[in-house]
Amino acid sequence: MRLAANHQSAYIALPIYFNMNDLKESVSHLTHLQCSNCTKVYSAEQINTFASCDTCGNSPLISHYELEGITKDDIDIEERSMWRYFKMLPLFDQKNRISLAEGFTPLLRLDNLAADYHLASLAMKDESQNPTGSFKARGLSMAVSKARELGIRRCIIPTAGNAGGALAAYCAQAEMEAVIVMPEHTPKPFKDECLLFGAKLILVPGLISHCAQKVNELNFSGDYYNVSTLKEPYRLEGKKTMGYEIAEQLRWKLPDVILYPTGGGTGLIGIWKAFHEMIGLGWIESRLPRMIAVQSGNCQPLVETWAGRQENSKMYQGRATLANGLAVPNPFGEKLILAILKETGGEPVAVAEAEITRAQREVARREGLLIAPEGAALLPALQKLLANGRIRRDERILLLNTGSGYKYL
Ligand SMILES: Cc1ncc(COP(=O)(O)O)c(C=O)c1O
Ligand SMILES: [Zn+2]
Description:
Layout: E1 11-12, H1 20-26, E2 30-35, E3 41-42, E4 47-48, E5 51-53, E6 57-59, E7 61-65, E8 107-109, H2 111-116, E9 121-126, H3 136-149, E10 154-158, H4 162-174, E11 177-183, H5 188-196, E12 200-204, H6 208-218, E13 225-226, H7 234-239, H8 241-249, E14 257-261, H9 266-281, E15 290-296, H10 301-306, H11 334-344, E16 347-351, H12 353-367, H13 373-376, H14 378-387, E17 396-401
Parallel strand pairs: 9-17, 10-11, 10-13, 11-12, 14-15, 14-17, 15-16
Antiparallel strand pairs: 1-4, 2-3, 2-7, 5-6, 8-9
């Protein structure tokens, strides 16, 4: 099969492998995809990558479901992975599920740090315990499962590191081809795991934005399915399960504030999407936690746009950071991320490299957790927001550690 390259077209005809209508009745309540900017409807029964509307240009596509009638009893409580929420997920036929038991990660109380900072309630959702050591497993499990369902055999991805390893692992299980394009400065374990999973690895000088250009060059004939952040709709659906889990683990009472390390933004958008779906289902109250997007001072496009120093981040030049996942200078979902921060009363915050290193040690020593630098960035951000009064010490605070520190050793 030939796929159109992403920059040429967002619409690709579905090869006829099965009757989609039969499968739709079986489990998923997915009805359609919608442009995140103008609400134009796109089909969920064909391979659609991102919205390319005449009126509003290119934007991420959002999956929509007919969720009426689904209750908490529909959660598959025997399934100790993100697939316990399979009814709210886009896979039509569970035979296509490619899973390494991702998700359903622990929500840990950080009592030592809470005592140090005089906080009433500090918790961490620990995504380091996922297959391949990061939350990227959720998105790639979902995207590769959907790719298989849609008859795709070859995937390509620009990555800061973790998404590449996850794609390689899920493609290995799916017996699909994976091409991973990664910055050459990425630590060795991120590269080695891709090779061990049997993927093709291409190293590029620069940041993920340069890898994205390389992907477009390599894929000019459209032979590969580009699973770049928000350039296909289903990684987001995997990531949204973090939102469902947070609600379920906190007995359907959301925290007051969530700090999230934000690069491309799929995690943050996914959690917010899950909250909205659960409000629609009547599972949670309508007051959302304030979402705080934490960035590195070396690459802070959201902070710059938020502060009005640029119209958007399209021309923003970032520098490398120890927190590789945060080195995303031109996030495709910027508009949506900023709208979410505004809607929830949150904001973007940047922290310095030295603060990240210090925080990684502090969390390790005080809590016994060796978290990723991306997750460690949350602690100095929290300290800043406590100092300027944007977060109160009596609030319920949730940090989202997105990955493991072990790959950085
Ligand atoms: C550990 C880690 N945290 C955070 C991010 C940023 O994720 P998102 O693109 O969802 O903002 C990445 C992305 O590579 C990552 O690997
Ligand atoms: Zn549109």
